[in-house]
Amino acid sequence: MLGCTEEIALEFRKHYKAFMDGFLCFPINLPRTAFHASLQGRKNAMKMIKDIVKERRLLKGKRKERDFLDHILGEVANEEEILTEETALSTIFAVLFAAFETTSAAIALGFKFLNAHPHVLTQLMVRP
Q: Which GO terms of type biological process are on file (predicted)?
């Protein structure tokens, strides 16, 4: 999906595991807590994604194959599109998360989010 080596993919896996292991725990952001490790896992995964994006931009036009990342970066570069770089990075994180985690865990996280943010649930219920 991002044209990564196996070594980079394993590092992503480590960061996503840290993210998931602490995501459903009590949200206290103190060092050595599962929640802190979860936030660090997300931060590290996002840094890896940013580094890959930076590297890919340097290789623009030099690669023969186009993958998911190339298409996303093309949309960000297109001035007519509304996709910002921050949104693109979050989308890449979400797609990689979906590829890593099971559907049931993703649904559980969705319910946890909706429970923590009832105004979002209200907005979703109002939409046709």
A: brassinosteroid biosynthetic process; brassinosteroid homeostasis; sterol metabolic process
Query: Measured in whole angstroms, how far is the alpha carbon of residue 15 from the centre of its chain?
Result: 11
Q: In whole angstroms, give the CA distance from residue 47 to residue 43.
A: 6
Work out the angle between the directed axes of helices 6-23 and 34-58 (0-180°, nearest 10).
150
The tokens for 81 are: 């599109």
Q: What is the 3-state secondary structure (H, E, C) of the chain?
A: CCCCCHHHHHHHHHHHHHHHHHHCCCCCCCCCCHHHHHHHHHHHHHHHHHHHHHHHHHCCCCCCCCCHHHHHHHHHHCCCCCCCHHHHHHHHHHHHHHHHCCHHHHHHHHHHHHHHCHHHHHHHHHCC
Give pLDDT tens digits for 25-62.
788 889 999 999 999 999 999 999 999 889 888 877 77
Sign of CA dihedral 99, 104, 110, 112: negative
Of 52, 40, 42, residue with least CA distance to 4:
52
